[in-house]
Structures are given as structure tokens and as C-alpha cells.
Predict the structure.
Amino acid sequence: MASGDLRNQFYLPPELWLLILTHAAEHQDPLQPYYEPFHSAGCAISSETSVDAVSLKNRHALGLVCKQWRGLIVKQLYQDIRVGRRGAALLATLQRKETHEGHQYGRLVRRMVLPYSSTETRTNHALPALDILRACPQLEVLIRPPTVAWLQLPQFDFTTESPSFPNLKRLDWWHHDYASRSGGINNLGDVLRNAPNLEYLSICDDGRSVPARQKCMQLSHLKVLRVQRVMPMFAQRVCLWDMPSLTHLILGNPYPAASKYLFCGALGPRLRSIELGLHMSFLLRDEVGMIMASCPQLIEINFYALFTAPCRYTRTHTSLQRVGLHLHENLSLACDDHYDSKAREMVEGHLNAFPKDMFPSLADFVMYGEEWIAMLKHPNSPSIEDLIRSQGRSMVVI
């Protein structure tokens, strides 16, 4: 066979190469500006790994193979970046015009991790990080991770400013009380005012301070609010924000119970879905029942089956349609010799907590997580499926 015929036999169109390279480069699902059940636990804002370092290394390696592969992978290569203390080299790269369309690399950036160490204001000089942000006009996801306590803490002695974010869809913000006083890019309120199209907001506090200057915000397009370790005073301020499109609330933990009641009480009537985080505190009281009482229009609720107490709501709830159960392993039960039976007992307790006469619209129990595979293969698993069918409902395994 001629060499030309051999090349044609193994020829793949660019679209397939792009698909192959994309799958090869991605190590974990990237942050998205919309709600995905139980996805927030894997991309917590408590770490700079919100932009996956493994994926960045994979993309860089693929781009070094040949010029053709680099042309295919260039968009994936620059869509996620992390800003360090010295941003001059990164800024020079982002401002280069070497894409096929003749645009700067900065226009390819979609997700950015911006540590507080890169926006410290030791002097009154302009921050290089601001120029980096301005060089990324298509930025959709911005992550402000916490400072690492055992490293040198950044200094914030002067004020700064915030660029506009016309295309920002998601903001993951870990509050830094000292930094917020410098304003601008270090202040949540200033950033929110410059992000008119924000749809997903994740807020985490250090549990010791109250963010300053958080006046009433106009967040017309915000659909998803994720809160974790937010103090009651700040929770009360957030509940006063104008969020007419808000439909999804994710309650992380740990944080004071008073904050949960404030969020559910003030925002409950407009919510369509709620997710409870991965924490043992949800086993201490009937959080699901409290949510049912506060959210009359709720359509979907998602929680971790082994980390949440069964619902004891005793009134009729006519709008609930789906209950999502994640079977994440509970290590406090794993040391027990009867872990499997206890886990199954807790799952059945959740299924029995939603009787047909009290939840007439409930149609589906959605099972999330790989742990369900082992449980449903167990000889006693038919009891779970039969229990769901006996209620006239469907079981969906994802």
C-alpha cells in the first residue's frame, strides 16, 4: 500500500482531533456558571485548585507535540489561568496577538483564579492584576480563594479599583476582611457592582468578620446563590439584595444555624431548588423539614443521604417534584461492622419521609454518586427499588 493511501486510511477530521484532545486534556469538570446538583462540593472555593492544575499541565503538554495540535488546543490552553505574585510575564503573553483569528490570547480566557496575594496593595502603584483582568474581556468565571495562613500574609495598605466584568457569569468569593477595606477588586460589593450579568455567586466567610460596605445590590440576573460559613449579620444583608431571578440556593457548612434560617425565611418563597452541603451538622436537626416549611414553591431538593436527618414535615407540600440523594460515604459510620445495613436503613428512612398523600407531586428519586452502584447490586437492593415503585414513583440513577 502506498504511503499516501496509508495516511488517508488513518486520517481524522479536525473536529474529531479536537474532541479527542479535549477529553485528553480535561482532568475534572470545570466550573460552570449554572447549577449542577452536587457539583459545588468538588470545586470548593477554599482552594486555588478550582482551576485544575492537572488539566493545565495536560493542555500544555499537548500543545508542545506539534504545530497542528497547538492550533487545535490553543483555546483550551488559555481558557483557564491562575495569577501569581509576578504577573508581568502573564500579561505580556495575554496581550500577544497569535491566535488564528488575530486576537490576543487574553480573549480566550474564560476562568481565572485570582489569589489575594496578587492584588495586595503594599504601595500606591497600579496593580498588574488589574491589567491582566482588563486583558481578559471574555472572562466568565472568577475565583478569589482564601489566603494560606502559614504563608506570608499579603498587605493591603492602599486603596485600589475594580475593572468592569461585562461577561462575568460566576463569582466564587472567599471573604478577606483586611483586604476588603482596600476596596476595588478586593471588595465584594465593588466587584458585584461591576458585574451586571452575574448568574452564579458563591460566598464564603472566615466566620469571624462581617464584610464592610455591602449595601443593597442589584443582581438582576443572579440565579444561583451558594453560601458557606456566612455570619448572621452578613446573611441578613444578603437577603436584602435585589435578586429577582434567584431560584437556586446551596447551603454549605459549617456555619451558624441562624444564617440558614435567615436565608430560608427571606428567600424561601421564590426558591425552586435547594441543596444541602456535605457536613455532619445536617444530621443534628430536621433541616429538610425546615426547608419544606419555608419554601412552598420548591420543586427540587438535593442532599447527602448519610449526612442529613430524615424529613419530619407533617403538612402537605404540593410543588415538590424531585428529591436528589447523594450516597457519599460517611466515615463516622464506615468504622461500624454493620455499615451497609445502617446506610440502607438511612436511605429507606429518607424514602419513607415523603409519603404520597403529603407530597402528591413528587415523581422522582434521583440517585447521585458512584456509591449507588455497590448498594444497588447488593442482594437487599430490590427492597429500595420496590419501596420507590410502591409509592408510584420512579428511581433515576445518575
